[in-house]
Amino acid sequence: MGYYQQLDAPKRRLVDKHLELVMEANKTTNLTRIDSIDEAMMLHIEDSLSGLPEMNDAIEGLYGDLGSGAGYPGIPLAIATGRKTLLIDARQKKMNILASIIEELELQDQVDVYAGRAELLAKTRSGEFSVLTARALSKLSVLLELASPLLKKNGSLICYKSHIEDEELKDALRVQELVGMKLVTDRSFNLDEYERRIVTFKKVGKAKVRLPRQEGLAQKQPL
């Protein structure tokens, strides 16, 4: 049984309504390339909720979703866990739409949005987050650099991936000590015919380099 079916009825209704609102908004704004409800149930909802074991293992406290886009995995995980949540994305237009969706879901007391880059957020909210997610966002080494200054001690970074090249994992393992992070779990599974992998890192100490660096450097000049 999938994680969606394990939610109680009120939570399933909220998750369903979020998807309906996303699909409606997608008619005028490009929030997702997926236009089939069945496909979206699998590739947005089930995929988002597949990180629940790692979320439940994370320390209590604020949750942030990096590169949230249409609110996946952020909103389903917020609904499932009840955590205070911040959806983070640099695209103002998408965040405006998400803010209105959150109001329609009546989740505004629990879920908020931040339109801006993670590096900027880290300057004002350093060490505030207990857990961060990033779904199909960037290379692991880049995600480690972006997440480290946002996370509190023992906070978790949960990375959703489809396929990880050996070189990408090797780079992440090289960078993790520099940024005060450590690989703790690595789980592979299938969603129907889709291969999925969730890799989790924990904030174990202070970074040995000054973070955050200037906006965009993590991608342009990786550590």
Can you walk through the features of this model?
The chain has 223 residues and is an alpha/beta fold. It has a single domain (3-220), classed as 3-Layer(aba) Sandwich (Rossmann fold). The protein contains ten helices and seven strands. It has helices spanning 3-6, 9-25, 37-49, 52-57, 74-81, 92-104, 118-124, 140-147, 166-176, 217-220, and strands at residues 63-66, 85-89, 111-115, 129-135, 151-161, 181-191, 194-203.
Topology record:
Blueprint: H1 3-6, H2 9-25, H3 37-49, H4 52-57, E1 63-66, H5 74-81, E2 85-89, H6 92-104, E3 111-115, H7 118-124, E4 129-135, H8 140-147, E5 151-161, H9 166-176, E6 181-191, E7 194-203, H10 217-220
Give structural attributes.
globular, alpha/beta, 223 residues, seven-stranded mixed β-sheet, Rossmann fold
Write a brief structural summary.
41% of the residues lie in helices and 24% in strands.
Order of helices and strands: HHHHEHEHEHEHEHEEH
Helix content: 40-55%
CATH architecture: 3-Layer(aba) Sandwich
CATH class: Alpha Beta
